[in-house]
Amino acid sequence: MNEILDTLHSRLRRAIECCSGQDYCNGDLHPTLPPLLTSEYVDPSVKYITIFITVPLCSVILLACVILIFCCLRFKRQESRPRYSIDLEQGETFIPPGESLKDLMEYSHSVGSGSGSGLPLLVQRTIAKQIQMVKQIGKGRYGEVWMGKWREERVAVKVFFTTEEESWFRETEIYQTFLMRHDNILGFIAADIKGTGSWTQLYLITDYHENGSLYDYLKSNRLDVRSLLRLAYSSISGLCHLHTEIYGTQGKPAIAHRDLKSKNILVKKNGSCCIADLGLAVKFNSDTSKADIPPNLRVGTKRYMAPEVLDESLNRSSFPSFIFADMYSFGLILWEMSRRCISGGVVEEYQLPYYDLVPTDPSYEDMEEVVCIKKQRPSFPNRWSNDECLRQMGKVMSECWAHSPECRLTALRVKKTLAKTLESQDIKL
Length: 429
Prior knowledge:
Residues 131-422 form the Protein kinase domain. This is Serine/threonine-protein kinase receptor. The protein is α+β, with helices and mostly antiparallel strands. The chain has 3 domains: 42-69; 101-207, Phosphorylase Kinase, domain 1; 214-424, Transferase(Phosphotransferase) domain 1 (Transferase(Phosphotransferase), domain 1, Orthogonal Bundle), CATH 1.10.510.10. The protein has 12 helices and 10 strands. It has helices at 2-12, 44-80, 101-110, 121-130, 165-175, 214-220, 225-243, 307-310, 320-339, 364-373, 388-400, 411-424; strands at residues 132-139, 143-150, 153-160, 188-195, 200-207, 254-256, 265-267, 273-275, 282-285, 290-291. The strands form 3 sheets. It has a 5-stranded antiparallel sheet. A 3-stranded antiparallel sheet has the order 6-9-10. β7 and β8 form a beta hairpin. The longest helix is centred in the first third of the chain and has 37 residues, at 44-80. The chain is elongated.
């Protein structure tokens, strides 16, 4: 303000006198400067400048105060919200009470995370930390399977041994592949690593299916034709989705399971199946024509290994080779299912493939001798020839477990064949 007044003083303190009565009359002139301006007098232009500066400054201060008040109120509102978990640790996120797993999945899909690409990682970690373990329902070479609860919803929790970290990582990665989610692939919920410096637990949380594995289901249940076709068609639908590459900006790669067996297929409450246990699966990158394949070719379960896996002649540079090996294993699974289907009032007891040809826990050599050298396959009961559905199933499985990989049916072809069988039997699933 002082600078402005000084400028005005310099402009206003001027005196002008004139004369014209005689020559050199200006010599008698003695102009006097007007008195200095005081703060009591301010030029109107100065008032305008002051208002121009003061009004915006006050507006900014007022806006800042409003924002500060709004933030304080919002913080208090969040603090007063009921939390499901008393304390959210770092790396957790708030999930409002009442949100079900189905709601979370549908919301995740609707906001564009991709069908089957999984929940956000912070949500996964929060769910994993809120799981209540109820009872152990299984155990394998990788670890244990528990039935757990999250907000009264039952879930399956696969706890991996620390030595199986690579398998945990692979399975988690496969489940979160874009467009992976499918009715006949086990529903993935979350994955997390829990632990301290002294211990670590690797969690994989999925949908829970009370019927258990197909292996358990077949041991305790006899099938009619409808049940058999439902199990078979849903299983091959899941495998077909796994094997199929979906092209697009964000497509889905072709995936080979590599450990397909009845214990790795689960039976849902509605009698359909879903493919599970993807820890040994491999993705195929069509852009590079390469797949991330471990150096050890003989992986999986010996009883279900294809001939080319047993004798290590599988062409590892060709990804379809792994797809063909899956189809061999699926042929054996169809055999397990079909034996438990009643026809003419007769049904066989449940048995594993090659139960009459190899020991209970066969070695590689046992399996190689039977499958590769002798080229034997599971036998068909005589009654199958008198039942059109079982006869058709026998034909399909024979073409799935053909000795030459290239001669085996694809998952899509099996799916279409079973769809025609359903239609011929006038069965709607």
